[in-house]
Amino acid sequence: MGTPCEGCSLDNHGVFHPCAEEIQKWMQKAFEMAKDALDNGEVPVGCLMVYNNEILGRGRNEVNETKNATRHAEMVAIDQVLEWCHCNDKDPGDVFERTVLYVTVEPCIMCAGALRLLRIPLVVYGCKNDRFGGCGSVLDIPADNLPQTGAPFKCISGYRAEEAVEMLKMFYKQENPNAPKSKARKKD
Amino acid sequence: MEPQRKRRKTEESDTFLWEVLPVLSEELSQGIEFLQAYAAPIINKKDTSHLVKKLAAMYPLEGLQHIKRVRACRDKHSPHPLEIIVCLASDLNSKEEGGTIPSITALLHNSESDCTGLGEPFLVQIPAFPPLTRPQFEEASRHWPTSFHEDKQVTVALKGELFSKDEKATMQKYMEQAIEAAKAGKEEGMASVGALIVDPDIDAVLAVAHDCRNSPNPLLHAVMVCIDLIAHGQGGGAYNYKKYPACHFVPTDASHYLANDNSLPSVNLSSLEQATESGLPYICTGYDLYVTREPCVMCAMALVHSRIRRVFFGVISSDGALGTKYKIHTKKDLNHRFEVFKGVMEQDCQKLSQL
């Protein structure tokens, strides 16, 4: 993109393909965001939005903090990019069309829909999301025929996948202190 | 005096120009698939139970427990009263080609003794899966009798008779507010989509929203705004809607409900106590959403995450995810499912897109 390194390339469709070093550099920071989520009792998913070799948005899950179940890492990062566009007088459409998302876990169906609506061209992610995954696990939103829902996008998956799964397992072993008490538990 | 007033009221609400229909899962709404099978006449009625046992041992018809093995002969003038399924066409090694029907001796592995009591076989179509709805059952039964465990609620829903006139009046009341919100949004330069979240247990509006996608944030679809307004009502929230006064919420705590009598005229005290007794409200658990048009895939999945109870929408969308392109609300591999109904004030909602 802005200053592409030697290993990065544009494919026939003009989609940017980061090299292994590039992926390693950004995914490292996405994992740091996921760790921050875990430390704060949120589902450990972290992400980064990179444009012109610059981080425009960072996100981690904020569902419990905001009492809004749609505040996934991707949605949080998107808001930061929008804010950046606003402050720098850039058209969000132009920016998102050249932004790569680096995220530790496969985006869910909702986030995949959001990424399509914004026409983000490429998503690099760690592990699969068997419960909600919208990039092939439960549905394949980036590839499906949805002419009214933005544009399809490409995915590169599997980077540090085991580590990302391990973090999710750690979270789900704990209880969600924000969920309402179940009726069964109320009895004792 | 009282009954007379009541009667007039029902007469008034009798004139709904719309019908509300459930958006059912693929399994419930699809047509019936059929398999080819060989059936044969039972020559002597007294042999029936003996033949059923023998054929069940020879051809158990696994996975087809819904098929009744024996049926009454459809031709009233036939000399034999009953017919029985011998086996599936696929049970035979497909040596016989060209559509010729094998003889009964061939079907029963050439064992002459077993063939007594059965006439010459003929081909029938039998339903491959148990029928789940009455229309499926009726279609299946035209071909071969099946058992049917009717879900009465689904039958009533398919007839468009699930809701009483009073319930439809409530739906209309709420959808009118969603339409008003859509119009208010349009005046702000937004897409004309409106949404409303209500707590049906206390018949109270908790959040009203219009689409804000033409604002600096293109993802603020009406449903996303509504979900965030509910979060605000619970002390959270992520966005500020001060610029859009038509988007508002009601804090979900009992004292506020009672203080604001005019905004919530029909709060029922005892049910409110019940609602708060079970603890603090948790996102959209137990709530209903009214939205003027079918949500997109982002919004539909946002509703799964938010644990909505029911969704009522007016018109379908070409990329809609609650019936048109996907049925996100019925997907078994997701951790929450909910009911969806379409057609509420359909024509009025349709008109919004022409504004």
Automatic annotation (TrEMBL), chain B:
Residues 169-341 form the CMP/dCMP-type deaminase domain. Gene3D superfamilies: Cytidine Deaminase, domain 2. Keywords: tRNA processing. One of its GO terms (cellular component) is cytoplasm. Belongs to the cytidine and deoxycytidylate deaminase family. ADAT3 subfamily. Its cofactor is Zn(2+). This is Putative inactive tRNA-specific adenosine deaminase-like protein 3. GO terms for biological process: tRNA processing. SUPFAM superfamilies: Cytidine deaminase-like. GO terms for molecular function: tRNA-specific adenosine-34 deaminase activity. InterPro entries: CMP_dCMP_dom, Cytidine_deaminase-like.
